[in-house]
Write a structure and sequence with these properties.
Rossmann fold, about 230 residues, alpha/beta, single chain, globular
Length: about 230
Amino acid sequence: MTSTLEQKNVVITGGDGALGIAVVAAFQAAGATCHLPVFGPTPTAPVPGAVVTPSVNLTDEVAVEAYYASLPPIAASVHLAGGFVAKPIAETSKADLEKQVSLNLMTTFLCCREAVKALRKSGGGRIVNVAARVVEQPPGGMSAYVATKSAVAGLTRSLAAEVLKEKILVNAVLPSIIDTPANRASMPKADYDRWPKPEELARTIVWLASPENTLTSGALVPVYGLG
């Protein structure tokens, strides 16, 4: 990967989260310069070596437009930002659904749109979104989350068809529960060995986002682990 991503600029949303830190590290190991828009005035966790832009609201159309317009030429845009809620539908409010739409679908849509504009100027590139295993194996009790992650999957496949001739490849990964400290804390009796590790997911994301990927577009890549 080093030869193809060396000195390339890559946008990573959610890059200061548990998965994001592993993804940033993997891209940096491959030689890329990582650009991180973060919601707060500072990253949630330190991300050494990354170019961090604070106070970027990824649900705000104007803010996302301005952020991408400020970047140097990019080779890829990776969209990890999102949120999760698990409630039976009878207990899911309109506000719950709207928040999931905002965090999962709107952030991905706006970043995809602006990434396409930027990648056209670069002559092509890669976009990687994060949907979820629930898209293919939907459980009960999280209808708002499933609906919005399914929308991300649909967006990915439609966009892939739209921009393929422009040498922009668009894919999504479908993780199950990721082995993070927060997930372990919320499910202390779970079998953590069955959960995919952030570093494992990062390797797949880096490949999809790299010039090494010359053919794959419109794919929903299962990264479930053993769970």
